[in-house]
Amino acid sequence: MRGNYYYKRLGENIVKARKKRKLSQYQVTQLSDIDRSYLAEVEEGKANPSVRFLFRIAKVLKVKVSSLLKNL
User: Fold this and answer.
1) How many domains does the chain have?
2) How far apart are CA 47 and CA 10, in angstroms?
3) What is the dihedral angle through the alpha carbons of 32, 33, 34, 35, rounded to the nearest 10 degrees?
4) pLDDT at position 17, please?
5) Neighbouring residues of 32: CB distance < 8 A, sequence distance ≥ 6
6) What are the tens digits of pLDDT across the range 18-58?
7) For the chain, how far is it from start to end, CA to CA, in angstroms?
8) Contacts of 5 (CB under 8 A, 6+ apart)
9) CB-based contact 62:21 (threshold 8 Å)
10) Rounded to an integer, what distance in angstroms lies between the CA atom of residue 45 and that of residue 30?
């Protein structure tokens, strides 16, 4: 149960960064070569992303991985 809270917060941070850059899920997945449905699961807090995934997303969103993990 506790893990779900952290995944949910991580997803919220990704959504916030994505919207700040005015990118859709589709655009992010095209730029990062990640499946859109998997990104949606991560943003909803339903998946446990790998470190590699976080680095790919951070690069596309032009943020540091630490900012995605902020307030977890």
Assistant:
1) 1
2) 10
3) 140
4) 97
5) 56, 57, 59, 60
6) 999 999 999 999 999 999 999 999 999 999 999 999 999 99
7) 14
8) none
9) yes
10) 21
Amino acid at 24: S
Q: How far is CA 3 from the centre of its chain?
A: 16
Separation between Cα atoms, residue 49 and residue 20, nearest integer Å: 21
Q: Which two tokens stand for residue 18?
A: 């994505």
**pLDDT category, 4, cuts 50, 70, 90?**
confident
Separation in Å, CA 48 to CA 20, 21, 28, 63: 23, 23, 18, 20
Q: Domain range spanning residue 42?
A: 2-68
The CATH code of the domain that includes 41 is 1.10.260.40
